[in-house]
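EI: anyone free to look at a 436-residue chain?
SC: sure, send it
EI:
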Amino acid sequence: MRQFIKLTLAITIVTAMTLNAKAERILSVDNLFTLIEQNSSELATLRSATAAADEGIAAARAARLPDINASLALNYNGNALLTNRQFGDAMWTHVPHFGNTLSLECVQVLYSGGAITAGEQLARLGKEQTLVATELTRSQQRFLAISHYLDLFKIDNGIRVYDSNIALTRRLIDDITERYNQGMVLRNDVTRYELQLETLLLGKVQLEDRRAIANHRLCNLLGLDVNERLVPDDAILATLRDSDTEQLWQQRALDASPALRRCDLNTQVARQEEQLARSEMLPKISVIAANNFTGPILTEVPPINKNINTWFIGVGVKYNLGSLYKSNHKLKQAKLNTQRTVEQRTVVVEQLNNDVQSAYTLYRQSFVALNTQQKSVQLATQNYEVVNDRYLNQLAIITDMIDASNVRLNAELQEVDARVNTIFALYRLKYASGTL
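SC: here you go
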């Protein structure tokens, strides 16, 4: 048992030395969110996707520009064979062997049945979807970071509570040891307080280990060196209590929720896909201009060894008759997809309403818990002082003192947790409403 206690003390000392060796960084919530914005790998990926979406818009807009095709060919022409209709009287006719063709064609679409416009809109909506996805990811990353951040804050306060109780217990041990030397108490009383001290030291070690894990995870999330010791800023305790009603939070969620905006964008995308399916059943009209420079002239017999340049300009109409019985199924499918996105929005609104109501209720409940724990600390402290006085006057036994000390320790730890939980509940409410 004593070897275990010595090992625990050694671990405590080594852990403390290791933590003190780390570079400390005091981190405010604003700094926390700034580091998330700068170093999050997921947000960096979405920023690249946004840049790609910009290029997609430019590519979709370019579909309105004319198509210009140019071709150049050099060829060797063989001699021609002439026969009568019965394949008799065959004779060879000389053909100029060197041939050349240069052609240029320009096509400008005048009417595409709405396909080009729908393509542009889909590209723009694709960028908006990427931006909304960025907002959702940013909110998720912030909420994850604030969870680790407040966990560190809670652990640090817990360690302070343990340090205070350890210092107090050591003073009591000194007092009881002095009384033991005077023959006023038994050795067993001193031993029990020494065991109480070891229990407190072990609890502190366990908290410091939890802190190391949370610190490591938060450093990785923020893109920082894992050897840095992150220290939450005490200014977060000044976070004001929000007095807005649940109805106001529900309205904020309807106005700001990225999840709802994503549903609206999905509906708009589905409507544009409807337009694309409908455009397949409409004619395509375009202006065509072409120029051909070719030689020799092989349409004459004998061939003429000269170049000829021809050109034309006109209007072309293209209509896929097969679309009348093929594309109607695509159009029906697109309409059903639009209906599905509209119905999906209703589901998201219901879920959002439930999440905000739950988060708001837990936020209000957190203050009730805090008030309860503050009262518990007050009562536990009073009880400890009364028992301590009774023990010093030999009116209480050592187990009463240990029980009172444990009750006060638990009350103080729970009060620290309750205080931080109110702050976490507020950020959870902001996350649920899409305003984080």
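EI: The first helix runs from residue 2 to 21.
SC: 👍
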